[in-house]
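Quick question, first post here. What does this chain look like in 3D?
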Amino acid sequence: MGRFDKYNVDLKGMRVASLELEFDLDNAFFADIDGEEFKKGTVKAKVCVNKGREIFDFSFTLTGTVVVPCDRCLDDLEIGVDTENTLRVKLGDNYADEGDIVIIPENEGDLNIAWYLYEFIVLALPMKRVHAPGKCNHEMTGKLKKHSVDAEENEDSDEMQIDPRWAGLKDIQIEEDN
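> Answer (accepted):
Ran it through. Tokens below.
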């Protein structure tokens, strides 16, 4: 049995008009999924599948927390997740992703939703992931301040150091044709 077999949804064999699934995504799930954004968390996933004539509509509700590295100090940062997403799936000849519809081969007839669960969580995370003011690792923020002050001093300096290989370019003037 594979690591993600429990996330397979048998669409071809679905006999009811709607199906509700629940999953507890934990550290083992996030470590196994091998995503780059994070490896720890506890998220409850509720998945509803509604069977139409030709389309299967998936509704995902994900709530919980994940642990990501802080963008500023790199220490662990716990971020809440509360998101709802949808996915439309259709049976066809070959696997394809046509905009808002995923087509899976009819001869296979099932869809593994593990990666979709992970991706929807990633999409729910904020772009900037930092601790609240004063909560970052003090040692790391001290080093960051030290290096950012040096960079500001170099920018404010009247005499910017120019690479000697490029120094000759400052004397070149381009004449404009009128």
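The chain has a mean pLDDT of 87.
The chain has three helices and eight strands.
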